[in-house]
Amino acid sequence: MTEKEKMLAGKIYDAAEAELKQLRETAHRLSREYNMLDETDEAARAKILEKLVPNAAKSAYLQGPVQFDYGVFTELGENFYANFNLTILDCAPVKVGKNVFIGVNCSLVTPVHPLLSHERHGRPRTDGSVFVPEYAKPIVIGDDCWLASNVTVCGGAVIGNGCVIAAGSVVTGEIPPNSLAGGVPCKVIRTLTEKDSIELKKELW
Predict the structure, then answer these.
(1) Residue 124, C-beta contacts closer than 8 angstroms, at least 6 positions apart
(2) Are 168 and 151 a contacting pair, CB within 8 Å?
(3) Which of 28, 113, 118, 121 is catalytic?
(4) Quick one: DSSP state of residue 31?
(5) Torsion angles phi and psi, residue 150, rounded to 5
(6) I need a labelling partner for 49 at 20 to 30 A (CA). Which of 14, 78, 85, 196 fits?
(7) How many CB atoms lie within 10 A of CB 195?
(8) Contact of 51 with 31, CB cutoff 8 Å
(9) Is residue 74 a contact partner of residue 54, using CB atoms and an 8 Å limit?
(10) CA distance 188 to 177
(11) Confidence at residue 126, expressed as pLDDT on a 0 to 100 scale
């Protein structure tokens, strides 16, 4: 297996390998170029996104600034919206459904580093040089979700359709569909129902 194949399969891989290094450098450059454009420069932003996140729906909107590790391993569905400061480290596949809203300062992070400190010191390559082992777990976010500000979604997390994740939460596991969830680690608070409709909140109208 190549290092890229190992990475995407959730195996230990060498992130400094040439192909992965080039993919990251390209994504970092495109992220920077996107961030330097005014939001009114729609055509230029769209052109960059086609290269940065080729698996994003054309209706996806990223306010910026953004930071992608690879971009090419992220899928964004129709009517995706992300507010300021979205970070996606897509060392494993990141799949986001349609009609998903993401608030400010949110991060979707798939990499996992060894818990034991000595294992983070590095391992020898065949040529005698050293690499730091890591692996990654995929992230799946279903349709019609809202992640409020400062949410972190960790590798291996699965968020079901129709969920709302409260501000400041850290999602590490599975959140069932139609849940209001929050906390560190994120846990289900309750199921969302029609009683949560803004139509019933007379003070808002």
Answers:
(1) 130
(2) yes
(3) 113
(4) H
(5) 60, 35
(6) 14
(7) 6
(8) no
(9) no
(10) 10
(11) 87
Q: Are 102 and 82 in contact (CB under 8 A)?
A: yes
Digits of tens for pLDDT over the chain (205 positions)?
999 999 999 999 999 999 999 999 999 999 999 999 999 999 999 999 999 999 999 999 999 999 999 999 999 999 999 999 999 999 999 999 999 999 999 999 999 999 999 999 988 888 989 999 999 999 999 999 999 999 999 999 999 999 999 999 999 999 999 999 999 999 999 999 999 999 998 998 9
Which two tokens mark 177?
């569909």
Distance CA(4)–CA(167), nearest Å, equals 33
Contact indicator for 33, 41 with CB cutoff of 8 Å:
no
- From residue 30, alpha-carbon distances to 23, 27, 41, 42, 110 in Å are 11, 5, 15, 15, 20
SS3 163: coil
Asked if 26 and 18 count as a contact pair (C-beta separation under 8 A), the reply is: no
Q: Give the span between the Cα atoms of 86 and 64, in whole angstroms.
A: 7
Q: How far apart are the first and last CA of the chain?
A: 59
The verdict on whether 113 is a catalytic residue reads yes
CA 92 vs CA 153, 183, 201: distances in Å: 13, 24, 41
